Amino acid sequence: MKFTSFKGLDLRSVKRIVVLQEDWTGTVQPQVVFRERRKGSRGLRPLEKAIRRLNVAQGTAAGVYLEGHERSNSKKRNGWFKDLRKNLARAGRRGGKKLFRIR
Questions:
Q1: CB 74: neighbour CB atoms within 10 A?
Q2: Which whole-number Å values give the CA distances from 91 to 53, 58, 73, in the listed order?
Q3: Is the pTM of this model over 0.90?
Q4: Parallel, antiparallel or unpaired: strands 16-22 and 5-6
Q5: Residues 93 and 55: beta-carbon distance below 8 Å
Q6: How many CA atoms lie within 13 A of 58 on its CB side?
Q7: Quick one: which of 6, 44, 46, 67 is 20 to 30 A from 53 by CA?
Q8: How far apart are CA 96 and CA 50, in angstroms?
Q9: How far is CA 49 from CA 42, 53, 56, 82, in A?
Q10: For residues 11 and 34, is the Cβ–Cβ distance under 8 A?
């Protein structure tokens, strides 16, 4: 069953609704009234996470390379070609840091 509203609230951006209720001993206990279901199979989550990290690393590397390319090209004639190895190495290091960072 899919809810789009709960007591007048729009639930499209709500992750969960927790109501605090008092039990018979007087302590307050949280009770989850609504929880958004995850989409996607549990078995595919690690693969999705790895692919997402790879894409973030590639985006970072591309951005770093582009900055170096433009800087080299503005400094000297055919500078982008002369500094190609240096710019690619720097971009690879930065992308690798995003990909293989230790948590």
A1: 9
A2: 16, 9, 16
A3: no
A4: unpaired
A5: no
A6: 6
A7: 67
A8: 13
A9: 12, 6, 11, 37
A10: yes
Q: How many helices (H) and strands (E) does the chain have?
A: 3, 4
Residue 13: partners with Cβ closer than 8 Å, 6 or more residues away: none
Closest CA to 87 of 69, 99, 61: 69
pLDDT of res. 56: 94
Plot region of 94 (φ>0 → left; ψ -120 to 50 → alpha; else → beta): alpha
Partners of 10 in beta bridges:
5
Helix, strand or coil, per DSSP, at residue 67: helix
Domain boundaries, the chain: 5-35, 42-99
Q: What is the pLDDT of residue 58?
A: 96
Q: Which of 47, 82, 25 is nearest to 55 (CA)?
A: 47
